[in-house]
UniProtKB/TrEMBL annotation:
<dbReference type="Pfam" id="PF13439">
    <property type="entry name" value="Glyco_transf_4"/>
</dbReference>
<dbReference type="InterPro" id="IPR050194">
    <property type="entry name" value="Glycosyltransferase_grp1"/>
</dbReference>
<feature type="domain" description="Glycosyltransferase subfamily 4-like N-terminal">
    <location>
        <begin position="14"/>
        <end position="180"/>
    </location>
</feature>
<dbReference type="GO" id="GO:0016757">
    <property type="term" value="F:glycosyltransferase activity"/>
</dbReference>
<protein>
    <submittedName>
        <fullName>Glycosyltransferase family 1 protein</fullName>
    </submittedName>
</protein>
<feature type="domain" description="Glycosyl transferase family 1">
    <location>
        <begin position="189"/>
        <end position="348"/>
    </location>
</feature>
<dbReference type="InterPro" id="IPR028098">
    <property type="entry name" value="Glyco_trans_4-like_N"/>
</dbReference>
<keyword id="KW-0808">Transferase</keyword>
<dbReference type="Pfam" id="PF00534">
    <property type="entry name" value="Glycos_transf_1"/>
</dbReference>
<dbReference type="InterPro" id="IPR001296">
    <property type="entry name" value="Glyco_trans_1"/>
</dbReference>
Amino acid sequence: MKITLVTETFPPEINGVAMTLEKLALGLSRLGHQVSVIRPRQKEEPEPRPEFAEIPVAGIALPGYSELNMGLPVFHKIDELWRESRPDAVYLATEGPLGIAALLVALVRGILPVSGFHTNFHEYMRHYKLQWMEQIAEQYLRTVHNSTWRTFGPSRDLLGRLEEAGFRNLRLLERGVDTTLFTPERRSEELRKSWGAPPDSPVFLTVGRVASEKNMQLLFRAWEKIRTQRPDARLVIVGDGPERKALEKAWPDALFAGARRGDDLAAHYASADFFLFPSITETFGNVVTEALASGLVVLAFDYAAPGKFIQHEENGFIVPFKNEEAFLTVADCLTPSDQDWSAMREAARETGLQLSWEAVLERFVKDLREAIAQQKADGLQQI
């Protein structure tokens, strides 16, 4: 099949959506499909890749996310592209102006549009004191996704919430993890030394955007409890975002490592011991499966990826959703120096090894073929 992905974010930008879409593009290409990616032009354009075509279009900086570009509604550009080379299906990964333009062109041309629900943008409103916009944002997202033939979400609990909110034609598109990249074998004592962590000192890691919607205040409440019990512990924060400077000033004993990619990111995972994930706004949480594959003891809330893959006290710890006191209680239990975590770490790694991207993508392709068949059966005219 010829499949086009349309997205506002793509590597080398560093975030969960960009990483997921790169895996989709690479994986679909390896399965023999012809893949193209329409995305905003980036400040530093990457080298062309042989596996798929990248088509950069005009964009502007996204307000509040200066490191990201928002695509402009380039209707004519997309229409020209698809008149020259018509895709069988278009996957809309983001709901901005570029995604809307692609959706409208696809509908006019009779090309199958499907969409992915990657980010709970409507829930972000409350974290930026814009609660009055939450319902407006949800209605907008519902309208966009219900205009496509399928909306894919990464977890069953998310699909359940979307169904209750009136989203239709929902399908599961889970996330795999690269277990050759994310592995305990990448543990580096040299990196730990650079953090000031001797072999017997616990290192607590979190990975993600350093922003209000990631529940950073709970992370540091947990860190206060941990360092009281274990003054030799270290907290490493991988990622960047609008709150980084303020938090670095407020918490000088925490190590802010900035954004990391590839082998460097994998080494940061493997060189830690525990993974704290306080976020309550995820659609999935790729970083959780990366932490499991790296053999870390994970503490998270019971939803999305943690709820699906973590068995409490077997391969990690999960606490009731939004129960911050429970999160803090378990964080306090991670500090004893005489606790042997090796069995839990091995169980975490085994969980990661079961998460294959190939199986995920084969199910996705099957869903696309079914949607195309339904579109033809409904007699949709192509232009």
